[in-house]
Amino acid sequence: MEPEQAPDSAGPEYVLHLFITGATPNSTQAVRNLQDICERYLPGRCELQIVDIYQQPELARAERIVAAPTLIKKQPGLVRFLVGDLSDRRRVLSLLGLVPDPNDPYLHD
């Protein structure tokens, strides 16, 4: 996999918000999956904010969240949304605009 571009020293290249519903199995799995992806593909290039909609419902309303878990990619590029536990790694990488090596064993679980 090749990086999209060099990281900007002014801040993180990727800004992600993950909206969850407490410690439910889907929310826990989404957090784990996204943290794994960020560590593997975006080390030092990702700002991840995890928002529990039970604790901060005003943020969920402001973003018009209707289902959880929901991932919002704020930067780079267009804002994009993905709902679910983020177990489809290829889909998450596509949302992030990353093209993984097709032989990457991480994608063949």
UniProtKB/TrEMBL annotation:
Transmembrane spans: none
Residue ranges of every copy of the KaiB domain listed in the record: 17-98
InterPro entries, alphabetized: KaiB-like (IPR039022), KaiB_domain (IPR011649), Thioredoxin-like_sf (IPR036249)
GO BP term, example: rhythmic process
SMART domains, per the entry: KaiB
One Pfam family here: KaiB
PANTHER family (alphabetical): CIRCADIAN CLOCK PROTEIN KAIB2, KAIB-LIKE PROTEIN 1
Protein name: Circadian clock protein KaiB
Taxonomic source organism: Hymenobacter jeollabukensis
